[in-house]
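User: Predict the structure for this protein chain, please.
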Amino acid sequence: MKQVILIITMVITGMLTAVAQKPAGQQQHKFFMALSAGPAIPVGAFASTDMNNTDGAGLAKTGINLNLAMGYNINEGYALMMQVLYSKHSLNDAVFHEVGASSDHWQYYGVLAGPAMTVNAGKNVMVDFKTLGGITRVNSPAFTYNNTLLVKEDWSTAFTLQLGADLRYSFAKDLFLFVNADYSFMRPKFTVESTEGSTNEPAEQKIDVIALNAGIGVRF
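Assistant: Here is the predicted structure, written as structure tokens:
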């Protein structure tokens, strides 16, 4: 977590420095960048606690999402967007605790890109409607029993599709407040492997998440 805080601090400092060093009167605003954070809300099978769910019970709780969004305005109506994201979810594993078992978390990070339609929604307010796709690395949870590791964690690469909307409110010459809502889904495939090797099975987890973020951005 200390490394994440350091990265966020460095990005914000760089954004503010770029604005401070920009020559007076320069009006080029083709590019923009925003750093935001907020809750990542699991839905569907990813949030399910029903172990008999045929789509798989992800047991995921609401987690945290960090988002670095970058865009290039092609013209007044369209933009190209890229997004770097990271999310982490603890597990709703109370049923495991009753028998002395526990688990750690789900987490994933990735890079997405795609087009956006930009709408001027009023004075100093822009709204971006976007469709992004890209690659995400997903980490499945490990499970322990009486402090003994039973099932190993695993990493998988998955295609991710995201639909979302961003709101940008300019409150200074080159700075804007950034609020967005994104719906992302991915279908990573893991190997469920026990430490003693008695279990080694493929498994797919349906991951659907709604992220609601807020932050600050800069135009340059």
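The radius of gyration is 20 Å.
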